[in-house]
Design brief:
By secondary structure, this protein is of the alpha/beta class. It contains 14 helices and seven strands. Strands 3-2-4-1-5-6-7 form a seven-stranded parallel sheet, with helices on both faces. Helix 9 links the parallel strand 5 and strand 6. It is globular, with a radius of gyration of 23 Å. The structure holds guanosine-5'-diphosphate. Guanosine-5'-diphosphate binds next to helix 4.
Length: 352
């Protein structure tokens, strides 16, 4: 006898997910048929903060999931003016000429703080955005439970389902967004200016340690400075990789440094060859898939933890006790650890 069909949401021990509603079935089909309008609508649904939209978006994501994961995911970061959009445009056009389809998702953490936007103020990547084989979209960084990249992670999956085989996630080099981008991409690229001292900033901030590849842009302006910066950064990376990977071998990927001129589209082909080499080495060692698995789990936990925190912050008994508890901590009438435990106790065991 053939096994009876099992509704996955009814199997004990599985997380419950809502089934796809009919209207979203059409949306899903549109995404899989690579229709831009459907793609844009799907991402808009994901970005909605309404609870009913969220449930539909989750169902849509689950339904699209089998069609995801086939792209190479590139993270690109760097300070404003380093040449991110110039580089991404040059790279995107190069890839499209080779038959790739390129999605660019931009995370702009500044839109949180100032209401303005570093990435959105100017017309960016005009040629690339006019190309049918490219899709460019900024992600809102605010109003999300799971951190700045939550919507971008989801949008990335939808872009993959829509057949984009290169997904570039771009962020300005400020705040937590670099860590977020490194934690959602296969390869994290740090763009640097060729002047000395700038690289030290990145080292201090710990961003250099995230980089799989450091690209010195604007090498055309001062080739000697670019070469000096390359030497400096190479030695800095060697220190990190030595600490991180005691098992050195020629087969393993070691973080690299290269120079390009995005404006003159010089070094772009070389950059892509390096990306492919990275991918080949990481796939061969199993690290490529391992990083993705680890990222998927971390993503889940991020949202669980953020949800718990939100529930705690909103909990009526916690909110009622908070002013007095804070006053007690301020006046040293109660130890901070004991205060924390008593608040957690109110959250976990609310009195009737
Ligand atoms: P973003 O803020 O990081 O996106 O930087 P942009 O791509 O907007 O570039 C900032 C400025 O640097 C623009 O005026 C670009 O034309 C210029 N630029 C970008 N790449 C290069 C390069 O390789 N060489 C030179 N000379 N200028 C560049």
């Amino acid at each position: 006898p053939s096994p009876s069909p099992v509704r996955p949401e009814l199997v004990e021990g599985r997380a419950r997910t809502t089934p796809l509603v009919e209207a979203d079935q059409a949306l899903m089909d549109g995404v899989l048929r690579r229709e831009r309008r459907a793609l844009a609508k799907a991402i808009t649904l994901l970005e909605s903060t309404r609870a009913d939209h969220r449930a539909r978006a989750d169902a849509l994501l689950n339904a699209l999931l089998p069609a995801t994961g086939k792209a190479i995911r590139l993270g690109i970061s760097g300070v404003p003016g380093v040449g991110k959009s110039t580089f991404i445009e040059a790279l995107g056009l190069h890839l499209i000429a080779q038959g790739h389809r390129v999605a660019v998702l931009a995370i702009d953490p500044s839109s949180n703080v100032s209401g303005g936007s570093i990435l959105g103020d100017k017309t960016r990547m005009e040629k690339l955005s006019a190309d049918e084989a490219a899709y460019i979209r900024p992600s809102p960084a605010s109003g999300t439970l799971g951190g700045v990249a939550e919507k971008t992670r989801e949008a990335m999956l939808v872009c993959e389902a829509a057949g984009y085989d290169v997904v570039i996630v771009e962020t300005v080099g400020v705040g937590q967004s670099e860590t977020a981008v490194a934690s959602m991409t296969d390869l994290f690229v740090l763009l640097q200016l060729p002047n000395a001292g700038d690289d030290l900033q990145a080292i201090k901030k710990g961003v250099m340690e995230l980089a799989d590849l450091v690209v010195i842009n604007k090498a055309d302006i001062d080739p000697n400075a670019a070469t000096r910066a390359m030497a400096q950064i190479t030695s800095a990376l060697r220190v990190f990789s030595f600490h991180g990977n005691p098992a050195h071998s020629a087969e393993r990927w070691q973080p690299r440094v290269m120079q390009i001129s995005a404006l003159k589209a010089q070094g772009v082909a070389d950059f892509w060859a390096t990306v492919k080499d990275f991918e080949a080495k990481r796939r061969a060692s199993g690290e490529f898939e391992a990083r993705r698995t680890q990222q998927a789990r971390a993503w889940m936990w991020d949202i669980v933890h953020a949800g718990l925190r939100h529930a705690f912050d909103q909990h009526p008994a916690v909110r009622a006790a908070l002013p007095q508890t804070l006053a007690d901590v301020n006046e040293a009438r109660i130890a901070p650890s004991a205060a924390a435990r008593s608040l957690l106790n109110l959250f976990q065991h609310p009195q009737p």
